Recover the amino acids of this structure.
């Protein structure tokens, strides 16, 4: 396979070889807006020695084979937390207190099941680890009450298990990262069509366990909508779900495990819908006089059943500063709002959809901006996390958060979350927003913030984020459209689902995982 497993930098996003200082042009802009405050790199700190007893380690080796239970600092460091900005700030400050005691690498469903049995017997907390791109604390297990924490690293489970060209489904092992899965499927002329910004590192199991949503969700669907079947290892046994394209056989139990973030079982195989590889990809820009006008146009498309494969709309601030080259769409002062519309598929189908969408958007007052903004977006669609690192190096805190609501509530949600962030981040701060995922009934809002780091950037960000989360819940929106709950969103998640919802989740957890070894402290309020 062409994509060998490149380990992400322990304190940055992505391929260590792609780490770079802030480009000169951006540095000038940052200097002007915030002032640059270069942060010195902190020397790598030794980890606290692992606490797992020799007998438990031997049992783990019995489950997965000697050589697949690793306790060295370098491996433990790479399996510590995820890649949110707070995760990076802690790692950069040398705080790796959440490091697992051991990293265990099973190769099959049976080995995963055997690890769970050992965990129950020896009271070890188990954290399933896919790509390690979690942004809400889902890879940080509670230590209290356990004899150690094990990272269940799915890196050896990377097979394409089956392809059904007639039904257009594929069954994949959970450890396949986005590019690895797409490469295997491309050899069959197929694609999943799931491309979140974290795609280069996130895994099939992680997509399912967090109910991820990709940049082409308007065309292909969010990941949970693509899943038709799951195999799950739980402490009380195996469950295989998904025997038909649809059924009326009671509640859909797949939904229990989609989004369960490693707390109810380990996903060991995922069957997804697949599509033929698109022959054509066209990405273009549209300009709107305001965010509200662009949002209304997207709603019209969604409700007319005319959504492109990709559709996203930046607000005025994001259009001017981040996504667009303002000159390319009419000048910085009058940049308006940039929408990206992308079409993928067979040439005739793409042309027909593009023509129909163009007619609607033109009729609604949109101005075509050609393919240049679309190509620019497409070329840079996985680069932003590298820029975040360069900005953190320069003392600028950058983080994202997201939510979703019904169309009739979008204005209020946008205004309230933006106001909460702006009030807490102080001056100078940038709060940018785009609509990133769209439905007939509503959409998600994705916010990016940039602010000069103060004396305690972690605490400052946590206060701003809490205010934004309060605003989401008070506005009647969801605490997360696709980043999941993890540990960070738990209090607001409990408010969102209410006491009966919390009771239900706890009841399921208690029966499926009676010893509570699966990712304790995550998701379940
Ligand atoms: C820069 C950046 C950009 C991002 N962009 C997007 C985006 O566009 N869309 C989006 O939806 N998300 C995005 N995310 C969030 C993150 O990438 C997703 O949540 C992703 O689905 C996580 O996949 P992973 O393989 O990295 O999972 P991990 O980080 O390894 O794990 C996430 C959670 O799932 C559990 N888990 C992992 N594998 C399994 C398994 N096989 N069985 C059971 N539980 C498991 C873990 O225990 C953990 O709780 C982004 C994150 C970053 C850092």
């Amino acid at each position: 396979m062409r994509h060998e497993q490149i380990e992400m930098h322990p304190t940055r996003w992505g391929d260590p070889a792609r780490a770079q200082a802030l480009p000169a042009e951006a540095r000038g802009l940052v200097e002007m807006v915030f002032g640059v405050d270069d942060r010195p790199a902190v020397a790598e700190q030794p980890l606290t020695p692992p606490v797992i007893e020799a007998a438990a380690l031997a049992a783990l080796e019995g489950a997965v084979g000697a050589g697949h239970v690793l306790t060295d600092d370098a491996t433990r460091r790479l399996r510590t937390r995820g890649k949110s900005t707070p995760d990076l700030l802690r790692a950069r400050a040398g705080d790796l207190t959440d490091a697992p005691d051991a990293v265990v690498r099973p190769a099959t469903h049976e080995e995963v099941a055997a690890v769970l049995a050992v965990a129950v017997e020896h009271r070890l907390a188990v954290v399933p680890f896919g790509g390690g791109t979690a942004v809400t604390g889902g890879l940080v297990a509670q230590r209290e009450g356990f004899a150690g924490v094990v990272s269940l690293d799915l890196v050896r489970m990377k097979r394409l298990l089956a392809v059904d060209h007639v039904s257009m489904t594929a069954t994949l092992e959970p450890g396949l990262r986005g590019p690895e899965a797409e490469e295997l499927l491309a050899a069959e002329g197929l694609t999943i069509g799931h491309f979140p910004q974290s795609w280069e590192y996130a895994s099939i199991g992680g997509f399912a366990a967090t109910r991820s949503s990709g940049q082409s969700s308007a065309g292909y669907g969010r990941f949970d909508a693509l899943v038709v079947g799951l195999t799950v290892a739980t402490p009380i046994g195996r469950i295989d779900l998904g025997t038909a394209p649809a059924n009326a056989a009671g509640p859909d139990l797949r939904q229990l495990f989609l989004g369960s973030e490693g707390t109810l079982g380990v996903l060991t195989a995922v069957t997804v819908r697949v599509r033929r590889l698109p022959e054509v990809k066209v990405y273009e820009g549209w300009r709107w006089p305001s965010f509200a006008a662009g949002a209304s146009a997207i709603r019209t498309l969604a409700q007319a059943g005319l959504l492109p494969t990709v559709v996203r709309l930046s607000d005025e601030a994001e259009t001017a500063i981040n996504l667009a080259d303002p000159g390319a769409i009419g000048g910085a002062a009058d940049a308006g709002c940039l929408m990206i519309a992308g079409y993928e598929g067979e040439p005739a189908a793409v042309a027909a959809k593009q023509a129909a969408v163009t007619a609607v958007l033109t009729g609604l007052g949109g101005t075509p901006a050609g393919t240049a903004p679309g190509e620019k977006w497409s070329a840079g669609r996985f680069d932003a996390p590298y820029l975040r690192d360069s900005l953190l190096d320069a003392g600028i805190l950058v983080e994202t958060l997201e939510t979703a609501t019904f169309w009739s509530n979008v204005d209020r949600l946008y205004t309230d979350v933006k106001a909460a962030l702006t009030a807490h981040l102080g001056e100078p701060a940038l709060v940018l927003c785009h609509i990133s995922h769209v439905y007939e009934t509503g959409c998600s809002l994705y916010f990016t913030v940039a602010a000069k780091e103060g004396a305690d950037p972690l605490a400052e960000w946590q206060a701003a984020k809490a205010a934004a989360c309060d605003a989401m819940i008070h506005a009647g929106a969801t605490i997360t459209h696709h980043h999941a709950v993890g540990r960070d969103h738990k209090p607001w998640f409990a408010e969102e689902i209410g006491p009966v919802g919390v009771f239900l989740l706890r009841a399921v957890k208690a029966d499926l995982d009676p010893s509570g070894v699966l990712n304790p402290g995550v998701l379940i309020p």
Remarks:
- The longest helix spans residues 490-512.
- Residues 13, 82-83, 127-135, 138-139, 154, 174, 196-198, 202-203, 205-207, 209-210, 212-213, 261-262, 266-267, 385, 482-484, 519, 522 surround flavin-adenine dinucleotide (CB under 6 Å).
- The longest strand covers residues 396-406.
